Amino acid sequence: MLIGLTGRPGVGQDVVADYLARAHAFTSTKHITDELVDELSGHHVVVTHIRDRVDAEILAERGGIIVHLRDAQLPDLGPEGGIALREIDHQVMVTRDCFRAFDLLDRVIGEAEFCEVAA
């Protein structure tokens, strides 16, 4: 599974990536390239900095999803760099304790794994 995170700087990308690594055995990386995705094929990967349309296109071409992180205390500017969220992408509200965000991410991963098994 391939997940790319987007959101305002400091909203919690690294915290979410650390959770995914600990709870779901994801490998975390800051940037996405075709070469890196090839190198890590067969592993769950979370990319902490999806910053523009090019990154989002690489992610989409490889079957990944975008998770746009939002902080309830800050104005939401939407995904950066003209990134358009697709129907399969998600927005997650990150609170101080992150539990709701983690719960939603667990469900997203569970649904994706179910769809892979069913296919």
Automatic annotation (TrEMBL):
Gene3D superfamilies: P-loop containing nucleotide triphosphate hydrolases. Keywords: Plasmid. This is Uncharacterized protein. It comes from Cupriavidus oxalaticus.
